[in-house]
Design a protein that fits this description.
337 residues, alpha+beta, Arc Repressor Mutant, subunit A, SH3 type barrels, Alpha-Beta Plaits, 3 domains, five-stranded antiparallel β-sheet, 10 helices, 35% helix
């Protein structure tokens, strides 16, 4: 049997023991995991050797039940079960997507403390699981250049409603600009940290990438928070990082990609209907921003925007521009324009 399957099965044994109120018999574990009782005995011995406090006891009918003592971890009074604690320890691999963020140092320290609660043998056992539980970090800002001091000031500003002066490198205008803002919320999305702030000069809430904030200083004056505070899912209307209004969009997909489209939840508002020749139509209420256009373009010739006509026109223009670029490259012997 592959080593990975053995580790996963032993994890399932551990979880079954902890979730069983009266313990579990070897026969019961064997039936639940569809293996032999000999295999379960080997798994129990392996878990005991790894440092997990397993023990057996005999009931009034003479049946032997196996249990786990989840209270052997000194210094932990959080109320977590042992399985929850182990799962949290494992999640450090899944949190690689926030590597380089201003909170990375705190996350590292937290997991180091958590690791000290577990015995070395427990950690050795758990460290085998990531070989079968992998996570691919999403894209993130290069270098993680956001200053911890800047983030600390922004957090203080949002908590205490402090007017803030900020120097920001704007990509759209390709220049550094000074803003007076009312910081509303910090949000982590798609590998980056973002600030949502009201800009009095624009009379609007804008989104700023924290990595592009050169400096931030808190003023003495405070601001009145909005009557309807920015919600937890600040980018709910967008397929990317945007706070614009949602509007309907209809996209038709070719039968060759229909199974892939159907298998995912792309947005909470989506509705799917079948069309002729095995294709499908996807409707969503989302922000008509660059994230939506990029997503549609990513499907290439297998997707076509049905409505609104303006978005369909933008996609068509983008595709024509892309085809023209490839045309220029072929005429130049493949050289970049």
């Amino acid at each position: 049997m592959p080593r990975n399957q053995e580790v996963i099965r032993q994890w399932r044994v551990l979880h079954a023991l902890e979730s069983s109120r009266h313990g579990a018999t070897i026969d019961g574990l064997a039936g639940e995991l569809d293996v032999t009782t000999r295999t379960i005995r080997r798994d129990l011995a392996a878990l005991q050797e790894a440092g997990f406090a397993l023990y057996d006891e005999r009931d009034e009918d003479g049946r032997v039940h196996w249990r786990i003592d989840g209270h052997v971890l000194g210094g932990l009074e959080s109320g977590f079960t042992l399985a929850e604690l182990c799962a949290l320890y494992l999640s450090r691999h899944l949190l690689e997507s926030v590597a380089g963020s201003p909170f990375q140092r705190d996350l590292t320290n937290a997991f180091e403390r958590l690791g000290k609660i577990l015995s070395p043998r427990m950690r050795q056992f758990l460290d085998r699981l990531p070989s079968v539980l992998a996570a691919k970090p999403g894209p993130r800002a290069r270098g993680g250049t956001s200053s911890a001091d800047i983030v600390a000031r922004l957090l203080e500003a949002t908590l205490h409603f402090r007017v803030t002066t900020m120097r920001y490198h704007s990509v759209s205008s390709a220049r550094v600009k000074d803003y007076v803002i009312h910081p509303y919320r910090l949000a982590f999305a798609q590998g980056g940290l973002y600030l949502l702030a009201y800009v009095p000069d624009y009379k609007d809430v804008r989104t700023f990438a924290v990595d592009r904030i050169a400096s931030a200083s808190l003023e003495k004056q405070t601001f009145t928070p909005p009557k309807q505070p920015v919600g937890e899912d600040v980018f709910a209307n967008s397929l990317g990082v945007n706070t614009g209004p949602a509007a309907p969009v209809e996209i038709e997909f070719d039968a060759r990609v229909a199974p892939y489209v159907r298998a995912r939840v792309w947005h909470a508002s989506q509705q799917i209907s079948e069309v002729e020749e095995g294709g499908l139509r996807l409707t969503m209420n989302v922000c008509h921003d660059w994230a939506l256009r990029s997503w549609v373009l990513g499907w290439g010739a297998f997707a076509r925007v049905i409505s609104p006509p303006a978005l369909a026109g933008e996609i068509k223009t983008d595709l024509q521009a892309a085809a023209a670029r490839y045309g220029r490259s072929s005429h130049n012997g493949g050289a970049r324009p």
